[in-house]
Amino acid sequence: MTTVHTDHAQAWPSVQAILRNKIGDDHYDSWFGLAHVESVTNSSGPNKDQYTVCLSVPTQFLKSWIVKHHMEALLSSWQARAPIAAVELTVRTPAAYVPTSVAERPQEERMEQRAHTTLTYTAPGSDDLLGSSPVDPKHTFSTFVVGRANALAHAAVKQVAEGKRGDAVMYNPLYVHAGVGLGKTHLLQAAAFIGNSHERRVLYMTAEKFVFEFAQALKRQSSMAFKEILRKIDVLIIDDLQFLQGRSAQAEFGHILNALIDSGRQVVVAADRPPGDLDLLDDRTRSRLVGGLVVEMGSLGQETRLNILKLKVAQARVYHPGLDIPEAVLEYMAGALTGSGRELEGAVKRLAALGAVDAQPISLEMAEREVRDLIRPQEPKRVKIEDIQRVVARHYNVSRADLLSARRTANVVRPRQIAMYLAKVLTLRSLPEIGRRFGGRDHTTVLHAFRKIEALVARDRELAEEIEMFERQLQE
Ligand code: ADP
Ligand code: MG
């Protein structure tokens, strides 16, 4: 006989937070965003303290990916909160087939599940080879707050999404980039939903899923089938392109991108950096991406944040009808949580849970206490290699062109090495990519420059201070 241990199940929200921290927001959202605790049981066997958690996810794909890549992180996150011996994963059956078990679930879950059953889209005729990544039904255009930072991206994505089958393609590909939590996935999923309701065959996939599906197809020797399926769709939406890893999958992505664009089908891509900084891709694919419309979304302003908070509160009221967060508290939160939409949503969820327990309006003190650990130091600014080159060149009184040139005079060589060093330290670019951005130099040249400056900094106080000054200036 087994028993459900609700007190262990209640650890889930804090386990989620630990896990998110461990594997990062993007991985967390991609793989665990739709996971639910089904049960926590202990067997009546010899060891009664051996609890097993059962988590469910909506697709077999999510399950196998988590089992393969994130099991250890998942288990250790649980163990940090509760004495759990094992975690099992199951695939949730679509609501329609098991009405009784679904009816027993809380309303929130029921609604979510129903929505997923209808929204998760599979390209027609694709059998089970190519499914869409799961789409959050809350991510629609009507729940997307438009502000100064995202107005252009919003307009472009919406316009593309509202196109009908056979319409002329406007911006192709449409490439949206922004830092974490600024609404890329929200926008793309809204587009996937609208697109499907316009009778176009839309496939929404994270780049990780693309890679996974491609690898599966190769394993089954059916990469031709993979290409055929992708060629059958009208709109391909790829999220988090920066995670496109592996040479053959990258090459394949390039082929498919070309095939789709050449035949007038729409491609929409989101990534955390501009196309020029995607060092994974070959030049041809990169220039194809640059050739469409590239839009950056900036950080959310105070007013946009306040509006997002209000919207998230309205959404939370569906499940917490009594939720009452006074305007002054919302304003405080909009001022304090400057990082991303994710923090805003997290804060509202916490306060909603708190309000549900205490059945009282949320005070400023409560809000302060709850959001304190959400307030992280500002995400480090994304430093651009061009900015590094400009700042360094200006300081040493040479031109940026000198830094990129083949000149080897001492007055150019040292600043060039310093700029390369800073590019390595302040950006996530690879050595070959940095070399490319410094007039097509080899990665060994970059590595040499990096080591050289690193060694100099260790013993040259003046240079160390100069480098520190550059770093401050660039990250400001
Ligand atoms: P990204 O994919 O850029 O990392 P997401 O789209 O996942 O960011 O957004 C993170 C959270 O913030 C989501 O809950 C999303 O709904 C919310 N969010 C971000 N921007 C907006 C916005 N402009 N309006 C409403 N919600 C937003
Ligand atoms: Mg995202």
Shape field: globular
Q: Helix coverage percent of residues?
A: 40-55%
* Total E-strand runs: 8
Task: Give Rg in angstroms.
Answer: 25 Å
Structural class: alpha/beta
Q: Approximately what portion of the residues adopt beta-strand conformation? A: 5-15%
Ligand set: adenosine-5'-diphosphate, magnesium ion
Q: Treating each run of at least 4 consecutive H or I residues as one helix, how many helices?
A: 23
Measured between the Cα atoms of the first and last residue, the distance is: 60 Å
Largest sheet, if any?
A: 5 strands, parallel
Spatial order of strands in the largest sheet: 5-6-7-4-8
Ranges with pLDDT <50 over ≥5 residues?
94-129
The overall pLDDT, averaged over residues, is 82
What can you see in these coordinates?
- It is a single chain.
- This protein has 476 residues and is an alpha/beta fold.
- 54% of the residues lie in helices and 10% in strands.
- The chain has 23 helices and eight strands.
- It has helices spanning 6-9, 12-23, 25-32, 60-69, 71-79, 99-103, 107-119, 151-161, 184-197, 207-219, 223-232, 247-262, 283-290, 302-316, 327-336, 341-358, 364-371, 385-396, 400-404, 410-426, 431-437, 443-459, 461-475, and strands at 36-42, 51-57, 84-91, 174-177, 202-206, 235-239, 266-271, 293-296.
- It has a five-stranded parallel sheet, sandwiched between helices.
- α12 (247-262) links the parallel β6 and β7.
- It is globular and about 70 Å long.
- The chain binds adenosine-5'-diphosphate and magnesium ion.
- Magnesium ion is lined by residues 26, 184-185, 239-240.
